Hints:
- This protein is of the alpha/beta class.
- Helices cover about 30% and strands about 15% of the residues.
- Helix 5 links the parallel strand 2 and strand 3.
- Helix 2 runs parallel beside helix 3 and helix 2 packs across helix 7.
Amino acid sequence: MTTTALGYSRLPGLMARMTGDEKHAMAAASTVDVLWVLYDRVLDINPANLTDPDRDRFLLSKGHGPAAYFAVLAAKGILDPASLGGWRERDSPLGGHPDRVLVPGVEISSGSLGHGLPIAVGVALGLGIQRRTRPRVVVLVGDAELDEGSNSEAIALAGRVGLDRLTVVAVDNDSSTYGWPGGIADRFAVEGWATTTVSARSHDDLYTALTTPHPGRPNVVVATLRGETT
């Protein structure tokens, strides 16, 4: 909670401060536009409400290579941009995976694939039990981690109970080992989810897909990338 908000054009410079994890640079680059649209135009998350029980919840399941995530948090005043330069150093709170104990605004520690969506289902159910009607829950996953069996169970449960406060953004660059017959959107649709497929680089299309009402159903936005390795 340290800075004035910065614009989208500052993100490349902020990301450039974080070096030493080049093997995950494309993983970070694949998420930067989705993250920006979420924090700039969709989610009610800001430096002043990080402990408010009625804030929106964002869970980064695609937690390897979180440079874009940290850059967006810094651009929005949740992190101090000066902290980015020490990324992955021994005394830095910013590691190769985001840590919810160390980093302001981070809801879950992530990096092990297949955990974020099941946790998001639990968070959404818990908010309902608490009778909190305002917060929405958004989780960002990669297409490859959808191969994990834990996600299949989470997709089925959320669809069966009509968990309409939940939105999944699945960044898809055809990198999964097994894939899904008919594509990722069909895998969710068969379980009763609302589905939209858009370009992962189109801010307006992402915004529309993330804000279109889907009463009685959870929502998945498949954000496609082609020709990029993530």
